[in-house]
Every structure is written in structure tokens, then in C-alpha cells.
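As agreed, record passed on underneath.
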Amino acid sequence: MPHTALYRKKRPKRFGEMIGQKHITQTLLHQLQTEQVNHAYLFCGTRGTGKTSAAKIFARAINCLNEVGGEPCNKCRNCESILAERSLDVAEIDAASNNGVENIRDLRDEVKYLPSEMKYKVYIIDEVHMLSTNAFNALLKTLEEPPPHVIFILATTDPQKIPVTILSRCQRYDFRRIAAMDIVNTLKKYMDEENIKYEDGAMEYIAYHSDGAMRDALSLLDQCISIGDLLSLKNVKEILQAVDREKLFDFTDALTNCNGKKVMEIIDSAMKEGRDISQFAADLVRHFRDVLVVQISGGDDFSAETTEKLKTQGKNISSERLILYINTFSETIREMKFAPHLRTAFEVTALKLCVPQEVREVIVKEVVVKEVVERVSSKNTLDQEPEIETSVINDEIVNDDTTKESEVFEQSSNDSDVIDKVVSNWGKLCKILPMPLRSWCANAKVEKDNGLIKIICDNETSVSLIKGKQSVIREKIADNFNLSTPPNLAFEAREGYNVSGKISVKSPSERNTTQKMESAPAVQDEWSSFGQALVEEAGDDSPF
């Protein structure tokens, strides 16, 4: 005889055999007993929780010739016909491959005909959320008012994708994930029926990795029992390529104690055993979650021995640190999908968490400050030019934000007095000009020339730059002296004329260097603001 998969061989045939769905089976049994059967049902929930099994049991129970208390007898001709899948009145449709509107139109034509041998026609539509929009629309009217001899049972793992118009026409039943201990007890029962020896730890490990799905647990068990006469925990771990849970406990303790050497040894040991690094990270995140759950609520999904270990470990780790571990490693798992070397990405994350928080903050500050100092020093070195008397400029620019425009000059109604004050207080006026115009003007000299304010620079480039912004200068003068018409400006390029008014003889190379400096913005404010921003951002984007 060919081998039958364990999840098919052990599929429940009565509502009483279903595991972990008592809230649903009791309701369906009551409807069958009182003959208050609805025309459409929606069974939704995660994989392997019994949706299709419940639908098949319901189809037999509604057509059973000898039902007792709502349960099918599984012995009459109707039950046997349905069990053998040769009945024409019970159809199981895969909506994933029959999701077009044409398929639903064919179904709509079929439901008009009476059952050939049974009381009801039952249509089980699996993965119904895969139907197209047009297919759902074609199903609406039939689903709302089907013939009295037709019952629809829709099954899905993603009810959010089903239109509200469909949901409102069905009785909805949500299948829960099955508790780990219920799965363990069921697996032990099946192993006893198959006369296979096992270790309790092996059953708990399979249940733990089934994630609440009975079918997953039976598939894993079917895979493991082929290894020999005794199903041991060691064999299960070898077959599933899962990380020994003791390693997860040890790894967590090493992280908590900031023992980087121990962390690296555990990772290396797992890799030498052939474990997958991505699976190791996923198991680790789930372990952190288990510790957190037991720490907060006590937890009842684990064996007594495992629960005690989780409680003991939870006493040494705060909830905040566990949440940090979960978030950090979850992000690492996403990054590992694109990392060139998975193990390196995982190890770097683990070593980061081994550094205490207070130490990380100190290191980050030291690194950032050192980087800022080096970059500013490098910038100043590049900017070292032939000596120019710029101390006046720096003194005039400092603390410009604290100076109010209204306090720069005293008010005057005499134009000549205004020009004199502008010439004598040119440095103060430069303070209220925007950058980079402030820097350019601070390097210039001003004179009174026949009712005009003449701005003198030592090169044509500076003259052109300031002349292009002369409207800003005139506006500031007018604002400070309440002038309707500010005085006009004149410009002159006078070679060798610096801000002190002294004439100095310069070589062509010196003149070119000075020209570059005067035509560029001042760098002091720019670099200090850059350094401040870098320090402020260091706490969130630290390299540690």
C-alpha cells in the first residue's frame, strides 16, 4: 500500500475529534441538532487549524442518514460516498485555480438542479479570497438567495480580501491557532496509536515549531518518525535544522552580560553544526518574545520545565531590553536579505548589543567630536592664505543674531549725515546683511564721494558680486534711517586696497589668492553649524 501522509491519515472525521476549536464545533452541532442550518458559512483562520476538515464534517453531518447529536456516523452510504470523494452533491472547489467569472457562472447554473442522491448540495470553496472582483460579483445574488437545497461553505486564510457584500451574506467563524500543549497531547496520542517510541522533549519541540497549526505539526512529525524506532529530541533538531533551544538561552545570557566572546562562540558553534543563520536569528527573536510573554503574563503555551527556565531568564532582563533585542534583530533579519554576507551582518548586530548603553554613548561622543575637530582643522589648513588683516571682519560678524537692526544707527533726517554715519559705521552695517553678502562687504572699504557711498574693493570680481546685491544694501540703509529714497552707491576696484585702507604691494599669485578669499563666503559660521548638527545627530545614527 502507498504511504499516506500523516496529516491526511489523522484528519478528524467528527466534530469531537477536532482540536482547539470547541467554540465553533459546539455552535455547528447545535445548529445541526435544531435543524437551523444557514445557507452560507465563512470559515477563516490561519493555515492548518481545521477549516476544510470542519467543512467536510459538516457536509457529511447534514446529509448523514444515521446522525447522532449532530455528528455524522461515517458508515452510511452517504457518509462513505463523501469520504471516498465520489459524491456528485458535495463539491470542493479550489478558488486559487478557478477564480474567473466563467467558473462562477458555471457554478451558478449547477445550483439550480436538485441533488442526485442526498438531501443537500454542498459547495466548499477553498481559498475564496483568490476570486476575482467579477467572480465575487457573479456570486453575490446566488449566495444571498440560493435554492433551499444548496449550502455554501467558504474557507479562507485572508478574510480581509473578501468584499463586505460577501461577508454580510455569510455566518463567519474564526478558527484559532491551536495551543502548543494541545498539539503535544495530540501528537503523543497519535504516536501511541502508531506504536512508535518518543521523547517528550521531541513532541514539545515539534509543537513549538508548528506555530499553532496542527497540519504543520503532523507534517513535521511525519518527517521525523522516518529516522528510526525512537523519536528523540536530538534527531528532531537534526532533521528540522533548528537551533538547540539551550543555545538560545545561552545566547540571551551572553547578550545580557555583554559577553561578546561568548556570543561569537555560540554563533560559531551553531554554524559548525550546519544551522542556517537566518533561521537562528528568527528563532532568537521568537525566544526573546517568549521570555517577554512569560515575564509579563506568565504564559501557558510551554511545558512546566520550559516555563520555569523562561521565568528565571526573565528576572535578569528588563522588558525594555527585550523589546530592544526584538526590534534590533527583526531589523537585522530584513537587512540580511540583501547583505552580501549573512553571518557578518548578524554578528555585527550581536556585538553592538554587547556594548553597554552608557559606554556606547561615550564612544559615540568621542568619535563625533574627534571627527568634527579633524574636519574643521582640515578646512582651516586649506583656507590658510597670505596674511590679510581680517581680524576686523571677524570682530564685526560675531553675535550678529543678538544685534537688532533698529539699534545699529541713530535716526537722522540729513542725507549727508546719513552717508557719514554709514561710512563711519560700515562694519556695524555689515553685521545686519545676509550671508554671503556680509562677508563680501566686510572685506570692502567705503568712502563718501559727492553725495554717494563708494564701495571700494581690491578686485573686479568682488565689485561685481557686491554690485549685483546693491539693492539689499540700499534697503538696509533705508530701513535703519527711515529714508524713502536711500543714497545711491558707487563702486570702484582699487588694486592692493585692503580693509584697513593701507596700500600693500602684492605679487600676482597673492592677488589671485586674495581674490578667491574675498569672493567666497566666510567659512567660520558654516563649519561651526555643520559640527553642531553632526553632534546632535550622532545619538540616533551612531556607528556602534
Notes: The beta strands are 40-45, 90-94, 121-126, 150-156, 171-175, 197-198, 230-231, 445-449, 452-457, 489-493. Residues 385-413, 499-544 have pLDDT under 50 and may be disordered. The chain is about 55% helix and 10% strand. The chain has four domains: 6-175, 180-240, 245-354, 391-522.
